[in-house]
L-2,4-diaminobutyric acid acetyltransferase
Amino acid sequence: MMKGEVNINSQTATLKPSSTVTFEKPTLEDGAAMWELVNNSTLDQNSAYKYIMMCEHFAETCVVAKEDDKVVGFVTAFIPPERQDVVFVWQIGVDASQRGKGLASKILNELISREACRDIRFLQATVTPSNKASQSLFKRFAREKQTKCEVSECFKEELFPSDEHEEELSYLIGPF
Ligand SMILES: CC(C)(COP(=O)(O)OP(=O)(O)OC[C@H]1O[C@@H](n2cnc3c(N)ncnc32)[C@H](O)[C@@H]1OP(=O)(O)O)[C@@H](O)C(=O)NCCC(=O)NCCS
């Protein structure tokens, strides 16, 4: 592979000549870094416990992207017990310094290439109407997979305890 070239099917991707990003299953030690990345972004904040718990119980469906051992992106996802053909993306985040380089797209591709996702035919996420980057990410993923992206109502605004949370729309991508 030439310098700067990217192979989305492999475990590594060279984003700039001097550094290599790896895609791994998170370990317990990655939980705090995932939590920190979220705190520095517009994503909903949660306790550090939730990320550590995801690393403990859902590592097979979570991915951390690391550059020089630093977490620069991640996805936390799980397979809902009642829908074994769906992988539900809880959160995906990329460090501000790494955005716009295709990293989130590679993280999603890594996720669905896992052995744990062998029976998966759909990827689902919820997105707020104002999150254009996220909408573009999931629509691009559907385009790449040459499949549909069905947008529908999911979590209404009134479900959230304060007035500050927008509604969350479901993006159901598939079948692929
Ligand atoms: C959403 C996010 C994960 C995208 O990460 P990324 O690595 O920059 O995304 P990619 O480079 O793979 O780009 C994927 C698509 O999104 C588009 N995109 C990326 N940032 C964008 C922005 N700020 N506005 C509009 N489109 C954007 C890209 O152009 C690309 O689409 P295209 O191929 O049609 O041009 C990142 O912006 C982020 O971490 N945001 C804060 C957290 C968040 O909102 N997460 C999603 C909610 S679960």
The chain has one domain: 19-174. Residues 19-174 form a domain with the Aminopeptidase fold (CATH 3.40.630.30).
